[in-house]
Structure formats: C-alpha cells, structure tokens
Write a structure and sequence with these properties.
The chain is of the alpha+beta class and 156 residues long. It contains 2 helices and 11 strands, in the order βββββαββαββββ. Mean pLDDT is 75; it is low at 1-44.
Amino acid sequence: MRGEIVTRYEDATIASTKNNKVETIVTQPNDVSSNTLKSNNASNNYIRQINKSDAISIPEFNNLLRDWYLNSNEKNIKISSEIIGVKAWVHVKQGQDVFRLNSDTKRTSVKKYLDKYSASDWILVSNRNGKKNKVAFGDEQNYKVISGFYFVFIIT
C-alpha cells in the first residue's frame, strides 16, 4: 500500500509505518493481551482478535491477512483458534462504517481474497437470512461472494 511500510523485526513484531509514525499492528507472539498474530510455530498461526474499539484500516487489514497467509501453511486452518461457533475476530473501519471478519474464516478463502479481491470495491448483499450485511466484492451488477470468507457489515 502506498505510503505504508510493513517491517518484520527479529522479535516477531510487525509494525505499520505511516507518515513517520509507527503503529504496531502485530506484537510479540507471546503477548496474549494485545492484537497479535500468534505464531507458536510455522505451521500453527492464528490472527489475534482485533476488537471493534481497535478496528484497523483496509490497508492494515490487507497487510494483516497477507502476513498471516504467508506465515501459515496448514491448508484447512482458520484465522483463529476458536473451536466452537462464530465470533467477530477482526474489525475493520472505513470512515464511520465498521466491518467484521468472523473467526471461522478459512485460509483458502483468505487466499482468494488476497489474490483477486483485496483491491476491489466492497458492496453489501443479503445474507442467507435476507439481512443485507454480507460483504461482497465488485459492483452491484457483477460481484463475488467468497465462500468461507465470513465478512459482514456491522449495522448500528
């Protein structure tokens, strides 16, 4: 992303540098109290939960997903270690709008998003219950919903 540099440090800290200001988006993997990418070993990576109050920007979201994808290698892994249920896991803020990526989002769907849709427009479409809060990519006439990429708009 223009104007943004992502750096990996030896202590596994990843920071986003914007306008000479460092904003840590991923910290040391053993720090359980912060929003981090937990890396126990190369094959067991999870994204740490990012709460609504700490929502990240779209470029930070794309960088976070890209870094997680590149550092995880299990084909069927999810973004979180949550075993049961659907839970809001990563919050993204665009202006006043807040979106959430759910904990059961799969690695294969993250790859599809990164490969084809990370630069696409986001639009809202109806979910299976008829509620118009599901994020799709493209425009009103030609959009794509990524199977396994559980990304929704938070209606306030």
